[in-house]
């Protein structure tokens, strides 16, 4: 019988970024943790998802292993007081709730930016990591492929994934649009606070761009640059870097504008220079637009675009939830049939054993032709005898009464004894 599907979740909904950073797992840690879960608990259906917003472990087991798994995370991360973080984890021990949560996470309903497009690929990578270690059995394979199919339906049938719904992603989308005719656009990102860092991470959607970052605290820019593979320069060299950049994104905190019309007037602008001001208060003078070749967008322009998209996404949520519900029902119908499949096989084996014993008993002196006729007749009889209990078992699945029917058939035909004898 299928073990209960469970989940352990630490996310932006119940843990601040300082805690999420401590618990976050990289690829090597995920691999190591999957191996430990397999060795220690013999778990076959396991999925570990770790992003900047969440670290979650999904697993099938008849026991609640949440505390043991959280302690294993502590061992993996070298956190001696991992029990102090238990309050930040949400535990799903109900099969339906865990499956529903995984669907909602995979579709982007639980994302910090609703409808986040990156989550789908992150879930696929998590599944691949499990499959590579044989940590995905028939249950998880079917569940994940149902999720992938559901994701396609959401994209095709709703506006849930349309456009950019965060300021940082909307900024990157704008850059992509305005630099579409520029070969390897040179982008300078000034300031890597919360918004600046998010913009930098979204630059993965511009693989051809040459990105340079700078920050008043150099070490922070250096760490981000090493992570993302971007060039890093000292803040003192920011003005010189502006001269050669096609796009300048500013997200620094300053009481007075950092980029002025007087400064920009000194630049030689061959075709265009795009400025994006994500600072509040603004760090770029609006009058720079008077300089030929200069384009300026501020946080309000971009937020307006993101807000319109977000409204459309929010309007799509009921439709997305309806699609998810349909998919879960379809998955559960399969799951129920999987639950009775071993009993059907045991019943077939029990009847086949009786048939073979009786054939051997009564056909000792029969010729080949007689044996062939009896073989054909008895097999046909067995199929007809099987038909009713199989139909009844599947009907019991739909009524959520499969357990009772399995028990009745097991007692009636002594299926456990037959199974033991066969093994």
UniProtKB/TrEMBL annotation:
SUPFAM superfamilies: Glutamyl tRNA-reductase catalytic, N-terminal domain, Glutamyl tRNA-reductase dimerization domain, NAD(P)-binding Rossmann-fold domains. Its EC number is 1.2.1.70. It is an enzyme of class 1 (oxidoreductase). One of its GO terms (biological process) is protoporphyrinogen IX biosynthetic process from glutamate. Substrate binds at residues 51-54, 116-118, 122. Residues 319-415 form the Tetrapyrrole biosynthesis glutamyl-tRNA reductase dimerisation domain. CDD domains: NAD_bind_Glutamyl_tRNA_reduct. Pfam families: GlutR_dimer (PF00745), GlutR_N (PF05201), Shikimate_DH (PF01488). It catalyses: (S)-4-amino-5-oxopentanoate + tRNA(Glu) + NADP(+) = L-glutamyl-tRNA(Glu) + NADPH + H(+). Pathway: Porphyrin-containing compound metabolism; protoporphyrin-IX biosynthesis; 5-aminolevulinate from L-glutamyl-tRNA(Glu): step 1/2. The active site is at 52 (nucleophile). NADP(+) binds at residues 191-196. GO terms for molecular function: glutamyl-tRNA reductase activity; NADP binding. Transmembrane segments: none annotated. The record marks 101 as: Important for activity. Keywords: NADP, Oxidoreductase, Porphyrin biosynthesis. Catalyzes the NADPH-dependent reduction of glutamyl-tRNA(Glu) to glutamate 1-semialdehyde (GSA). PANTHER family: GLUTAMYL-TRNA REDUCTASE. Homodimer. During catalysis, the active site Cys acts as a nucleophile attacking the alpha-carbonyl group of tRNA-bound glutamate with the formation of a thioester intermediate between enzyme and glutamate, and the concomitant release of tRNA(Glu). The thioester intermediate is finally reduced by direct hydride transfer from NADPH, to form the product GSA. This is Glutamyl-tRNA reductase. The lineage of its organism: Bacteria, Pseudomonadati, Bacteroidota, Cytophagia, Cytophagales.
